[in-house]
Amino acid sequence: MKKFLQKKILIPFFILLLALGYYLVLPAFIVVEKNQEISFETPVNSELQDPTEKNIQSQPEILSQNDFQKAAYEVKGQALILQQDNQRILRFENFETINGPSLNIYLVNSKNKDIYHDLGPIKATKGNVNYQIPESLDLNQYDQVQVYCVPFKKVFSFANL
Asked: Which of the two residues, 50 and 57, has the higher pLDDT score?
């Protein structure tokens, strides 16, 4: 009877342990690769523009550029903040990192961790990707971009802006 109860408890425990291990370890082996072009959203009132001007786009201005640095895991690549007209994007170039559960991209004030802005889930663990920065966001409040693991509250890597 005692062995039966032990099996009844141990089997669900091991199944739970396997499921937890699968959730934590498997994402590290999944590589998501994207190579997006530098692109800005088209203006809402595009009919106000002269049709001959639509094909002429100014080159984006680089507001910030820096290499990613290891926090918890190795990383490669650069983070750039680009601006064209009133639109801004955060761009990762030649980026490569390990994957993990629920990785998000945060703009952070490194002196006050309560000041941050979540740009959403990571789009790729390898390649070149863009993240739209809202026009209303004051970039002067943020001096760092982080690859952040939400469930474990862990910074995977960062780049100073």
From this structure: 57
**Pairing state between β 33-35 and 126-133:** parallel
Overall size of the chain counted in residues: 161
CA 107, distance to chain mean position in Å, is 10
The model's pTM is: 0.75
In degrees and rounded to multiples of 5, residue 63 shows phi and psi of -85, -30
Terminal Cα distance for the chain, rounded: 64
**Hunting for tokens 């490569």 — which residue is that?**
96
Q: Is the pLDDT of residue 103 over 90?
A: yes
Residues in CB range of 149: below 8 A, 6 or more apart: 72, 100, 101, 102, 103, 155, 156
Q: Would you list the DSSP string of 59-128?
A: PPEEEEEEE-EESSS-EEEEEEEEEETTEEEEEEEEEEE---TTEEEEEE-TT-TT-EEEEEE---SEEE
